[in-house]
Automatic annotation (TrEMBL):
This is Rubrerythrin. Pfam families: Rubrerythrin. InterPro entries: Ferritin-like, Ferritin-like_SF, Rr_diiron-bd_dom. It comes from the Bacteria. GO terms for molecular function: metal ion binding; oxidoreductase activity. Residues 9-122 form the Rubrerythrin diiron-binding domain.
């Protein structure tokens, strides 16, 4: 099956986002005060790694994670605390699910990733 340029652009952006989220969640796990939050973020990092592999299976592109979120999110955690930071993370997870919807229709393997992103948002919300 050939992938249109438009879909490939979405898939690559999604793959990059998942890779970046792995580093972000790992970084947050190292700085959060609550041990349950830290364990949760480690699990989410692992799941985001699986998601990036799903997208890699489609794109066949080897991308490198960008460290921007991994750098800034721990700083934001220290500055604004979980009460203000976690809603931003929740929104990001829900937005990812929405962004995956159009390609999930054409690539069924993305449907489970889309559902996981919604679940990730719910999990982070439960930490508040």
């Amino acid at each position: 099956m050939s992938i249109s340029k438009k879909d490939m652009k979405i898939l690559l952006k999604s793959q990059q986002g998942e890779l970046d989220a792995v580093l972000m969640y790992r970084a947050l796990a190292n700085v959060v005060k609550d041990k349950n939050d830290a364990e949760t973020f480690k699990k989410l990092a692992a799941e985001e790694g699986h998601h990036s592999a799903v997208f890699h299976g489609l794109t066949q592109e080897n991308l490198k994670p960008k460290k921007t979120l991994a750098f800034f999110m721990p700083i934001l955690y220290r500055l604004i605390g979980k009460k203000h930071l976690y809603p931003l993370i929740i929104k990001g997870e829900y937005n990812a699910a929405d962004n995956y919807a159009p390609v999930a229709e054409r690539f069924p393997e993305i449907e489970s990733v889309k559902k996981d992103e919604k679940r990730h948002g719910d999990i982070v919300a439960s930490l508040l």
